[in-house]
């Protein structure tokens, strides 16, 4: 389907409303029958309410709440109270959020944006024996867990998906300038890139890790970029999101780079792409169109499957914006929890729900069908997205499938 038609179709679906669509998807149990006789339950949502990650936290909140609104504020026939706790950005603030939600008597936990927080709350969650469905990318060091599940992905995977693609696309002598922030996230992404790319060849440039400043100045990346451009790279690979992504791309172009950019999808996810789009006559839009930005992600709002048409239409109608991978993964966390609670019985304990999570099987998701692997993360498809004009706006448009990872 043409890009313009895809967008128009989603807009028309949104204009028609979501009631009929939700019914078609099944607004109650798995055979479509609405039930509401279960006892009330509480679910704890851990998200940042301020700071650099607030936008991601908002998307995660939106995704979970959208599922509830489409199911009559129920999960598996149980009326749900969603209790939110502030994540913060340290292990201590994350643990405080977990402790508060446990005192509320939650049946399960979800959310968590920061890899640092996820690592920091591991022991508290495992000791409490309450399942946590993490809905953002998690570090590869999070191993040996029983009660922590992820509906997003492990941070090595976007680098791995792109590494194989670049190995096939670029000449072996190509120089790739690699950028990212200091911290677990970029280290994992680069690790995945190396794992897939360095099969019979090697990356000749050392990664350049920059300050992890949530509000970067207009010159923060200038020094590292100048240093990299002296080597005349054939391509740039980078790991940034939000305000950092916007400033990095702007400064890269301002300093004269004229070549392709490759990155995990959050470089252009959410509001970042809107801020990079300076209009039809804008300089940055012309550079993006001329030289290209391609990203790897497990989701795009234009995926053409029934589950995504329902989800994307409802999301646009409710929040007046396109859904992101963060919202999708949180929506899926609610979907998986719904399935697990049905399997666990009418009055489940957290331990019974956790056991049932291992039995949910295939999940019919907006991203496409996936299932949990042995490490409690999704086995799923990865997509290559290119920034292109879709109507009058820049959009992330899926152009190919890259790999199935997990």
TrEMBL record:
Organism: Micromonospora tulbaghiae
Record's signal peptide: 1-22
Lineage: Bacteria, Bacillati, Actinomycetota, Actinomycetes, Micromonosporales
Protein name per its UniProtKB record: ABC transporter substrate-binding protein
Keywords attached to this entry: Signal
Gene3D superfamilies recorded: 3.40.50.2300
PANTHER family the UniProt entry points to: LEUCINE-SPECIFIC-BINDING PROTEIN, PERIPLASMIC BINDING PROTEIN OF ABC TRANSPORTER FOR NATURAL AMINO ACIDS
InterPro entries named in the record: BCAA_transport (IPR051010), Leu-bd (IPR028081), Peripla_BP_I (IPR028082)
Cited Pfam families: Peripla_BP_6
Domain Leucine-binding protein as annotated: residue spans: 40-391
Superkingdom, taxonomy of origin: Bacteria
Family: Belongs to the leucine-binding protein family.
């Amino acid at each position: 389907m043409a890009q313009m038609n895809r967008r128009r179709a989603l807009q028309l679906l949104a204009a028609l409303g979501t009631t009929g669509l939700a019914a078609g998807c099944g607004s109650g149990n798995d055979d479509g029958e609405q039930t509401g006789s279960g006892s009330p339950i509480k679910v704890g949502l851990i998200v940042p309410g301020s700071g650099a990650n607030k936008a991601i936290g908002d998307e995660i909140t939106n995704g979970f709440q959208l599922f509830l609104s489409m199911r009559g504020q129920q999960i598996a026939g149980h009326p749900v109270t969603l209790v939110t706790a502030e994540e913060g950005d340290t292990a201590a603030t994350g643990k405080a959020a977990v402790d508060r939600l446990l005192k509320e008597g939650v049946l399960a936990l979800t959310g968590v944006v920061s890899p640092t927080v996820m690592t920091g709350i591991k022991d508290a969650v495992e000791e409490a024996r309450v399942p946590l469905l993490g809905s953002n990318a998690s570090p590869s060091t999070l191993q040996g867990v029983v009660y922590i599940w992820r509906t997003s992905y492990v941070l090595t995977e976007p680098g791995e998906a792109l590494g194989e693609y670049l190995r096939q696309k670029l000449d072996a002598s190509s120089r790739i300038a690699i950028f990212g922030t200091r911290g677990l996230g970029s280290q994992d992404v680069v690790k995945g890139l190396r794992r897939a790319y360095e099969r019979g060849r090697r990356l000749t440039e050392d990664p350049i890790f920059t300050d992890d400043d949530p509000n970067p100045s207009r010159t923060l990346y200038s020094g590292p970029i100048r240093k990299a451009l002296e080597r005349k790279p054939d391509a740039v690979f980078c790991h940034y999101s939000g305000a950092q992504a916007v400033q990095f791309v702007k400064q890269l172009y301002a300093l004269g780079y004229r070549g392709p950019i490759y990155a995990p999808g959050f470089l252009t996810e959410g509001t970042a792409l809107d801020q990079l789009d300076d209009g039809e006559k804008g300089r940055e839009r012309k550079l993006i169109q001329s030289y290209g930005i391609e990203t790897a992600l497990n989701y795009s709002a234009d995926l053409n499957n029934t589950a995504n048409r329902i989800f994307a239409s409802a999301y646009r109608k409710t929040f007046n914006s396109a859904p992101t991978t963060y919202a999708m993964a949180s929506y899926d966390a609610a979907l998986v929890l719904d399935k697990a609670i049905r399997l666990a019985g009418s009055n489940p304990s957290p331990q019974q729900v956790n056991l049932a999570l291992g039995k949910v099987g295939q999940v019919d998701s907006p991203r496409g069908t996936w299932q949990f692997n042995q490490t409690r993360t999704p086995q799923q498809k990865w997509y290559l997205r290119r920034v292109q004009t879709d109507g009058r706006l820049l959009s992330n448009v899926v152009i190919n499938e890259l790999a199935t990872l997990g």
